[in-house]
Structures are given as C-alpha cells and as structure tokens.
Amino acid sequence: MNVPCVRVPTSEGEAARRALADRDLVDQSYEITVREGSLYIPVTDASAAGSEFEVVEFEVDARETQTMPADILGFEPTYERLGDVVILDEHDPERARRIADGIADSDLRAETVVNRASKVKGELRVRDWDVLVGTSTETEHREYGCSFLLDIAEVYFSPRLATERHRVVEQVREGEQVFDMFAGVGPFVVPMAKRGADVVGCDLNAVAVDYLRENARRNGVEDRVTAVQGDVREVAADYEGWADRLVMNLPHSAGDFLDAAVRLAGEECVIHYYDIQHEDDPFGPGIEAIREAAEPEYEVRIDTERIVRSYAPHEYNVCVDVTLTAR
C-alpha cells in the first residue's frame, strides 16, 4: 500500500527514525522498509515531517502485530532508547518498576531498562541510575552512520541531540581543523573526522576520553582524531590559534570557557556555542558574552540563532553559530 514515508539513506536511518519518533510521527501500522540504499519510514502526517526530510509516497507492508509495552500496561509509557538500553524518567519507583516489567515482557528490543535516579551532576556531567532490568549500562548507539560505544553510568550522552549534531557536522569541510572543547565520547568528533577534518576532542572525564579513542578506532578515523583528557582552559595553550571551528556544547557554563575559545581560534574560526536561557531573550546573553570575550581582537559575525529544544518551563537550549575574523 502506498503511504507517506520519509526517505533517508540507510546510514541516517536510525537518527531519522528517532527524530520522527520523538515527535510521534512514525506510523506504527506499517513496516519500515529498506530499498536500494534508502530507508522508508512511514509517517502519520507528511506535512509535519518538516523541510529537513524528504517525504515520498511508497509501497510498504502493513506491520505484523507485535506486543508492545502499551499492550501489556494498558497505557503508553514514556521512554527513550539508547542502543539496547531503555531509559525511563519516572518519579514513582513502583510505576517505574511496572513499566520496566512491561518493556521486558514486550517485543521491544531491550537488554537493560534504567530509571533516572538523579539529575546530571558534577564536573563530569554524569547521573545516577536505578537499573530495573538487566545489568550492563554499556551500550552501542548508532547515529548517522557512526557507531558509539558508551556507558551511561560513566559518561554524558543525549540521543535527543542527534539532529542538531548532524546540522553542525554537515557544515564541516575536508581539511578543516576542528576542536571540540567538551567532546564526551565523540558524537561531534567522529562524524567530523569522517568528513575529512582533523579533530581534537578534549574532555575532563577520563572514561569519556577512553571511549572517544575507541569510537574513533571503530569508525576508522583514529588517524584524524586526537583525544585529550583535561581542562580545556589548560589544554588551549598547546593549540593556540589552531582551530578553524570550535564546538562548545556545555550549555550551562560554556561562557566560562570563552577566553579559552578565543585562544584556540585561528585567523577565521566558526564557533558553535550552546546555551540555556529564558524564552524572553534566548540568544542575547550568549552573543553578548562572545562579543565581550572576542572583541576587539576579532570581528564577530552572527551566522545562526537556533532553538535546539525546550529545556524547562520558559527556558530553551539554544545554539548560536558565530564566525570570528581576526582584525
């Protein structure tokens, strides 16, 4: 039967499916289909898929009946998936346990089910988890053709930012020198290196840096990736004036590192600056902080102001892309 489908290359399939699922647009009545290097994802509303996706009419099969968590529980639970780990965010431990058991008894692929037990905390940006099903918190996550091994109990990683990461990665040109100041396990670093950039990834979390090295190896880009463990404010001295592009994805406190960013910047440098601000002025404080750190040494041009996602009531996680040009 011909139904509206988002068509993407198979290498981008999981990230596209996740982005559509986050917006409740995947039509579960039909099978996701692979054909000649493309993945066809049935959608419930073609007009809501957005300009970022190509929507076509395509013949797909009706989905065979599967037992999903909602069939067992009698309600649709909220969860997200990271590889074969299913993540809950339930305040009631009994409800969390019930949902975890429903997931385990369903046909949903899950080796481990966890519930958030704390907020992201500390310099290393990790959180506590209650493991409800399974034992291992290590998993493999695939995103836009890249594979990332990580342990959610030891490192920070957000699958919800896949689309935003891809937006930034697509801007990278072969031969660029890119510095990711808070690299984690490499979700910016690895795909940028796959586009032909030389990339330095720095992180304070030694475990994350070990995973970054492993992820560079498993994606075949270890020759273009340098992984550095330490405080980027100290590491910057070794790469002064080196970077053509900087990623500053530490939205709660990136402003504290702008002096280091300016030190790293080359004659012309693009900065992807992430921030969390009130809806009344989501971009102004970040732009002001960048100008204060970079001027008059650099001319500052604002390229993009982008709301990435809602973070809390009346607060947004945003990104400002700027270009610094030495005067």
UniProtKB/TrEMBL annotation:
Ranges of residues in domain SAM-dependent methyltransferase TRM5/TYW2-type: 79-326
Keywords recorded for this protein, A-Z: Cytoplasm, Methyltransferase, S-adenosyl-L-methionine, Transferase, tRNA processing
UniProt cross-references to InterPro entries, sorted A to Z: MeTrfase_TRM5/TYW2 (IPR030382), SAM-dependent_MTases_sf (IPR029063), TRM5-TYW2-like_MTfase (IPR056743), TRM5/TYW2-like_N (IPR056744), Trm5a/b_N (IPR040601)
GO CC terms in record: cytoplasm
GO biological process, one term: tRNA N1-guanine methylation
tRNA processing keyword on record: yes
Coiled-coil regions listed: none
Gene Ontology MF term list: tRNA methyltransferase activity
Pfam families registered for this protein in UniProt: TRM5-TYW2_MTfase (PF02475), Trm5_N (PF18093), TYW2_N_2 (PF25133)
Record's protein name: tRNA (Guanine37-N1)-methyltransferase
